[in-house]
Amino acid sequence: MKPVELKPGIYWVGGIDWNLRYFHGYVTPRGTTYNAYLIVDEKITLVDTVKHYLCDEMLDRIKQIIDPSKIDYMVSNHVEMDHSGSLPKIMELAPNAQLVTSPQGQKGLKRYYKKDNWNFKVVNSGEELSIGSRTLKFVHVPMVHWPDSMVTYIPEEKLLLPNDAFGQHIASAERFDDQLGWEIVHEEAATYYANIVLPYGDNVNKALDVVTRLDIDMVAPSHGVIWRSLIPKIVPVYRKWAGNETDPKALIVYDTMWDSTRRVALALQDGLEDAGVPVTMRFLQTNHISEIMTDLLTARAILIGTPTLNNGMLPTVSAFLTYIRGLRPKKRIGLAFGSYGWGGQGAKEVAGVIKDMGWETPLDFINIQYRPDGQELQGVRETGKKLGEMITN
Ligand SMILES: Cc1cc2nc3c(=O)[nH]c(=O)nc-3n(C[C@H](O)[C@H](O)[C@H](O)COP(=O)(O)O)c2cc1C
User: Fold this and answer.
1) Model pLDDT for residues 263-278, shown as the tens digit of each residue
2) Is 356 close to ligand 1, i.e. is its CB under 6 Å away?
3) What's the CATH code of the domain at 321?
4) Per the database record, which ranges form the Flavodoxin-like domain (predicted)?
5) Mutate to test the pocket of ligand 1, among 257, 263, 266, 313 (most ligand atoms within 8 A of CB)
6) What are the respective helix, strand and coil percentages of the chain, to the nearest 5?
7) What is the mean pLDDT of residues 330-353?
8) Is the ipTM of this complex over 0.90?
9) Residues near 102 by Cβ (< 8 Å), separated by ≥ 6?
10) Coil, strand or helix: which one is 50?
11) pLDDT at position 393 over 90
12) The domain containing residue 366 runs over which residues?
């Protein structure tokens, strides 16, 4: 339970959630951390806190450095409860602390915690606060990923505390990106982006415009490891994700009751591969929708298959579509497919949702009655190849 010094006098004092496997609808096989940062200067400052049940772990780390009652500024970059959950305890232990937050942050924290005695210091975007030898500069980044979101920058230290931006759900003994390596950190940053930040690409780009003008050598987010070596690699990748830029590859997502839809999926895979397109296959009974989002993040073509059940699509497919509709991936090519017995509404409904999302649909949806025969599968394979050629050309 040791604090970790990032820069002289600046410490990571967060909590490690080793057992977390589910985070508001998102599976987290590696667990996560809630990162809080303590800055020891003339004014002692804590930036963000941890989920309520890790409060004692955070306090234990803080107490190894200072007496928590000495905290002068409690900065809340983001209202969400995984970062604000220990605010009530800190504000109780540090009665003289001012709670520094954005105007939306103040509204959210008041509404959520209903504490009348908190001494707020509301900061505008661009406002600076001297804490002694260092300055805290606050930049609002609305909708990255809540209206209240704010980042804190310390120019004297070239340190950015961007809260959820650049986060990853990783519980580990390591605190820095280079200790885990690009493969793991990139994968978890991608999953995080795809499931949390994806709808807000335009806002991310605006935030990146501001952030990339700052002199930075360390980015310490509110989840996962701290970026110090891989910043030049992750920033362009964030730009790519924010711009919905994809690679010429395909993702096939499907469910099936009696295997016919899977046979169609396999024929589409063959056709796409004939055109030289790499294909990822995701069966909705064995892959969680939040894991599939990581594949979707950079796939140009998304093919979604369902049989018809009771005049509609399967509930697993419907849940997936509800999830991606909310996350709003753009600039994709879509194709619906499926199998039916008599009415055939399932694949048609999927095609309707794909169109509503604004994806390109150059080819008609595929719907095969009962089990596809060899000739039908050949036709599907040709459709897959045609789609593949559209992606690669
Ligand atoms: C419980 C149940 C309900 C079904 N309801 C419909 C329906 O409303 N309309 C329809 O066209 N087919 C319906 N079907 C038939 C399936 O869509 C058909 O068997 C299809 O080939 C199944 O595809 P799969 O092998 O990919 O599961 C239903 C099948 C089952 C088992």
Assistant:
1) 999 999 999 999 999 9
2) no
3) 3.40.50.360
4) 250-388
5) 257
6) 40, 25, 35
7) 98
8) yes
9) 122, 123, 124, 125, 138, 140, 148, 149, 150
10) coil
11) no
12) 250-392
